[in-house]
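The protein record now logged underneath.
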Amino acid sequence: MADDPTIGELFEAKVILGMDLVRAVDAYMADPATETFEIGGSYVLNLAGAVEASAYAQRVLVDPDANMMRRRGVVRAAILLARPEKR
């Protein structure tokens, strides 16, 4: 694993579980301004920053025709690409 792993790499290594990802998406959907989110027991992620870093997620989230499943999917993808901070 890289020295500065992404959430996706931590997920593949089973450091972060599927339920952690669901909770992160839920937290973002409840409050898109969430900056500090504990994930995987040892990491902290800026959820707002992770989603803002994805131009595709930004486009989908403002699309009035995008359903909730698609919105959640792009938020999940943005989170998987993000690099958390180790606590």
User: Anything to note?
Assistant: The chain has one domain: 7-81. DSSP finds five helices and three strands in the chain. The radius of gyration is 12 Å.
